[in-house]
Amino acid sequence: MNRPGIEPNIAATMLRRAQLNPERMAMIFEGRETRYGELAGRVLRQASLLREAGVCVGDRVGYLGFNHPALLETMFAAQALGAIFVPLNFRLTAQELTFIINDAGIHSLVVDDALREVINPAREQLCCRHYFASESPNEGWRHLDGERDAAAPLGRAVSVTEHDVAIIMYTSGTTGLPKGAMLTHGNILWNNINAMLAFGGDRDDVVLTAAPLFHIGGLNIMTISSFHTGSTLVLMRGFDAGQVLENIQRYGVTHMFGAPAMYLFMSQHPGFDTTDLSSIKSVICGAAPVPESLIELYGARGLVFCQGYGLTETSPFSALLTPEWAVSKLGSAGQPPLYSDTRIVDDHNRELPAGERGEICLRGPNIMKGYWNRPDATAEAIDTEGWFHSGDVGYVDEDGFLFICDRLKDMVISGGENVYPAEVEGVLYKHEHIAEVAVLGLPDDKWGEAVTAVVALHEGKSLTLEELRAFAEPHLAKYKLPLRLHLVSALPRNPAGKVLKFVLKEDLAG
Predict the structure, then answer these.
(1) Cis omega (within 30 of 0) on the bond before 337?
(2) Domain ranges of the chain
(3) Where do runs of H (alpha helix) occur along 200-259?
(4) What fold, for 30-160?
(5) Which letter does DSSP use for residue 273 in this model?
(6) According to the 3-state scheme, what is the secondary structure of 431-463?
(7) What CATH code would you report for 414-509?
(8) What's the whole-model pTM score?
(9) CA torsion 393→220→102→500, rounded to 10°?
């Protein structure tokens, strides 16, 4: 294999790692072990297959499926050709996928066998030139495994610059149509440099990924960087609390990324107290604020929460709370990474002093290039000075630590007062009967919006609005106390673990 160029191409970096350490363990998936040399060979053969199919520099290659080595191999193979990888949300309907696939202009699409029937009815409306099934062949589908294994390996990865797009990742589209965030090779690598400088990185680390890889948290908080450091990735098809705990003990996992809900479900699993977690160096959490009760629960097991804040558009790290600050800055999202910056602005884009709440703006080499085919949305999100406007509310304390209050769109205005749901949720989570809680605003004739708690209880427990208000009253101003309580069996969440508050609002307002 020819030596890959020393450049920012993500695939070339992984291939270089494989050249240096071919015998190191790259990935473990459902008991199957893949070493770096084997991974590189599969990627280079798939790259040749895609090139034979007509994929050129700048073309888009999509993947629809659950977490699987084929997703990562397809990503690296596309990037080795200078093409752009588009991971697709496996929970979307055919209609939703049709919009994204055609918006991205996907040239070739690789689909998990289990999801072919989602795509088949929509194929006449899709722009794709080639369809690959990840395992068994089918009429109208090319056989990825068979054709790849028969292909000659690509000689070397195509040269790119740090400004060339590596991944288009579509935002969740909870309001309006989803937008494709263009993440460059430089965005991905600078994010990983920022993370490694903050948390450290060891080639002997064992990283567990159970979060979905079509989401920026699953793909680029730890997964891609594990191939750069030469560490081992334990990849899971999906999140299962019991299986995660089993894998941590079995493989000596040192690091894991997850949303708060994932850690909550792990802590509620019967095996949590008996699982050997001594190999864990840190658990990294993002996607939503971590309730203090959860931090304390894991702290009792000797585990340190490293919190991160960011968005798809920021690749994602924009603030990091490193372990030495975990206690003294409890509840903070941390400080900006070494090569990124943060500021808080008012409605007129004027910077606010420490302690004042406003919109969080972010800048650095990790900020996306823009939205695919959406120059208007790009101009709205990134101002003329290069600051990305996050849509999140927060403040910076006197020491420069960022605190997230809530999403601007989730803020509740009750009786003219601003109520930040995350603050109320943090208090309510401490109630021993509550398993999950979401706070939102519902229309109210008297107050404009009523602070509403939607609660899932632990099995066999009960709770009334009066009891809930009495519990929260010592900790919250009166106007922040819930005026309504709705009990549900479980909160609706997207695959990244975020509560779908718009679903709750639609259900409860109806």
Answers:
(1) no
(2) 30-160, 186-371+387-407, 414-509
(3) 216-220, 223-229, 241-251
(4) Rossmann fold (3.40.50)
(5) T
(6) CCCEEEEEEEEEEECCCEEEEEEEEEECCCCCC
(7) 3.30.300.30
(8) 0.83
(9) -40
Walk along the chain (510 residues) and give the pLDDT tens digit of each residue. 444 445 789 999 999 999 999 999 999 999 999 999 999 999 999 999 999 999 999 999 999 999 999 999 999 999 999 999 999 989 888 888 999 999 999 999 999 999 999 999 999 999 999 999 987 777 789 999 999 999 999 999 999 999 999 999 998 644 457 899 999 999 999 999 998 888 877 899 999 999 999 999 999 999 999 999 999 999 999 999 999 999 999 999 999 999 887 898 999 999 999 999 999 998 898 766 677 778 888 989 989 888 888 999 999 999 998 877 877 887 788 999 999 999 999 989 999 999 999 999 999 999 999 999 999 999 999 999 999 999 888 999 999 999 887 777 777 878 767 787 888 998 999 999 999 999 999 988 778 789 999 999 999 999 999 999 999 998 887 889 999 999 999 999 876 677 888 889 888 876
> What are the angstrom distances between the C-alpha of 415 and each of 194, 406, 444, 460, 473?
42, 19, 10, 35, 18
Same fold: 186-371+387-407 with 414-509: no
What DSSP line would sit under 175-215, residue for residue?
A: SSS--EEEEEHHHHHHHHHHHHHHH---TT-EEEE-S-TTS
Quick one: 480 exposed, middle or buried, by C-beta within 10 A (0-12, 13-18, 19+)? buried
Q: If one looks up domain 186-371+387-407 in CATH, what number appears? A: 3.40.50.12780
